[in-house]
Amino acid sequence: MATAPLTVIALNCSLKASDKPSSTDVLLGQVLSELAGHGVSAAGEVVRVAGLNIKPGVTSDEGEGDDWPALRRRILDADILLLGTPIWLGQPSSVCKRVLERMDAFLGETDDQGRMVSFGKVAAVCVVGNEDGAHHVCAELFQALNDVGFTLAATAGTYWVGEAMQSTDYRELKETPKPVATTNAMLARNAAHLAGLLKGARYPGAPG
Amino acid sequence: MATAPLTVIALNCSLKASDKPSSTDVLLGQVLSELAGHGVSAAGEVVRVAGLNIKPGVTSDEGEGDDWPALRRRILDADILLLGTPIWLGQPSSVCKRVLERMDAFLGETDDQGRMVSFGKVAAVCVVGNEDGAHHVCAELFQALNDVGFTLAATAGTYWVGEAMQSTDYRELKETPKPVATTNAMLARNAAHLAGLLKGARYPGAPG
Amino acid sequence: MATAPLTVIALNCSLKASDKPSSTDVLLGQVLSELAGHGVSAAGEVVRVAGLNIKPGVTSDEGEGDDWPALRRRILDADILLLGTPIWLGQPSSVCKRVLERMDAFLGETDDQGRMVSFGKVAAVCVVGNEDGAHHVCAELFQALNDVGFTLAATAGTYWVGEAMQSTDYRELKETPKPVATTNAMLARNAAHLAGLLKGARYPGAPG
Amino acid sequence: MATAPLTVIALNCSLKASDKPSSTDVLLGQVLSELAGHGVSAAGEVVRVAGLNIKPGVTSDEGEGDDWPALRRRILDADILLLGTPIWLGQPSSVCKRVLERMDAFLGETDDQGRMVSFGKVAAVCVVGNEDGAHHVCAELFQALNDVGFTLAATAGTYWVGEAMQSTDYRELKETPKPVATTNAMLARNAAHLAGLLKGARYPGAPG
């Protein structure tokens, strides 16, 4: 088993600039707090991705002004990636899609035994919306994250949405709904456990 | 413009046998009522598909005991297909998937100008769940229905789900939420209008 | 029936800047050519969206430097929207997602009878990738476009992808595969027909 | 680390009865062979689910004639679930959806520390089609399997589809395409590794 302390990087893929309150931030904060209770420390503040210049493209460096190379480095330095996104039209935000797109490059960034740079990292997902769409957002994120090398612990997603066609924001709720709190705790417990196991025992590579 | 009266067939893809109450039935009934207000008459009772033997396969007749050929005939005799499904795990029911799968055969059932048997029919979708999943179910149903030749009017889906991770059933609600009622009415108005237009002016076929 | 000539605006949601060759452009061009054969004229050049500054947000004008208001105007002035996107990780591009997100505002832009600004417009989709993902991209685009008020004619999507896990680009093909050419023609024929019908007979609004 | 031998159960969700050749079987067989090379033994023959009577419902026993309880037992007795499905209309088969639906019951089948009966099991996915749809099928299966408690190793899906709109079957190929063989091997290597880790160190439960 791993004994080194684990770290998590959290990305907030809200469409809003960093000075605006974000429901996604609230859910990310709750999960980060649960992770802290399992000895996982946050690798810096939650990253408000819309405040960075993540250029379109599918390489790891799209040139001048591209903020991806530095963010990519931070993602690969952490043991756990916590990816948070709002829901628009039942789907993940364009900012979240941009992040996934840039990780497409991991598919070609392998060691001499075929292991991507992301192998051994655990990913988890936080999804927030006024209404409907969380399961689908989880589906798209799980598939994309898994394709680019992340491992998904049991219950790798947590979410909140209101009743159909309503407009309440998660950050307006007076208290965290009990099933959401339970899911947040389970997600954190499982992600921390699995990240520890994988840190202590890397995926084997392809025979040379 | 078409003057012949329009007809609609409604399918309930609940997992439950026909003697059990179904929230999907409630929403289908509301939309059928709206359609009636636009002169669209129901082609018989709502079909509880789980009560039929729709055999697995992708041809229009899978042999002895297959209830699909008769249901297929009724679908093609109507002007509008109203497809209702519950949500399980954020996705359409297996019963609904079976219906779509059987319509895969339409892709090869074309006239001498390349028009599928379903061309000119309008489809609309009713989705009900305890929680989250409606947008994705609409996405899968829209794509599959469109692939097999149906036309989708503006706002071709209506739905209800409760707050995340909750367990209220639509049929337990004391009254229809206003935005759902508004959407039901809009869906019916648009579907009836478009079905009338297409009945009066068929899609042109490929030049011979 | 409408007698005014129909127009189409085509958006290319490639991740690449406008001076780079794009497979999405090739497929869009083929469909535009088919549409021209049905009397539908292009409303200007194909728009390379990555070359514009479409700001994140869900209003129709996100302020200084936002290129969306002008593009939005052009979309609403045309009768048909032809939306083209490449596939990355089996999903639509972040550039395409941004466009859909901005159209979320249409949900609130209704006349006094509840009709969105987009009602009566027909949308169609062109999807290109090295490999797998086209059906899902169509599903997401159909659902989002329909949610924001567009109508989908039978066979509203055309696509090309190569064999699984391969890397051929559509623009490298020596000739258009026959089933793709057939689908392109059918999509154009149906979209033109339906746009004409809807131009001649608007969706009715809600009674006042 | 676990020293007990690992086992895998493979489900083929083809629409075809068990005496018909299946491309899904070919891919499942290739992955099972890779797993065997890592000491994972098959828990019996590949299960042709269409040959069983898996009744509609979301409980673990839908009564007389239901073949699910026995299949459920076998799934929970194995360390790895290998779920294989064909693609129809770009989506998983109705037979596959039925299996996922029945596992919905796992959500309520927890021990006194909130762990589902499936916690600690690893799932992987094999997808085969004539054309397009594999990424989406992986997305839906990953999300549903993860929701009901399965863990997903890096690269938890392998697939084959032909070029867009073509009709070649995987079982007709003269040899396995190299990237598919590489993916099969990677999937098996990672799944075996992770299943071993989790067998040796269970997910911790919620404090009592």
From TrEMBL, chains A, B, C, D:
It comes from the Bacteria. One of its GO terms (molecular function) is oxidoreductase activity. InterPro entries: Flavoprotein-like_sf, FMN_Rdtase-like_dom. Signal peptide: none annotated. Residues 7-161 form the NADPH-dependent FMN reductase-like domain. This is Multimeric flavodoxin WrbA. It holds the Pfam family FMN_red.
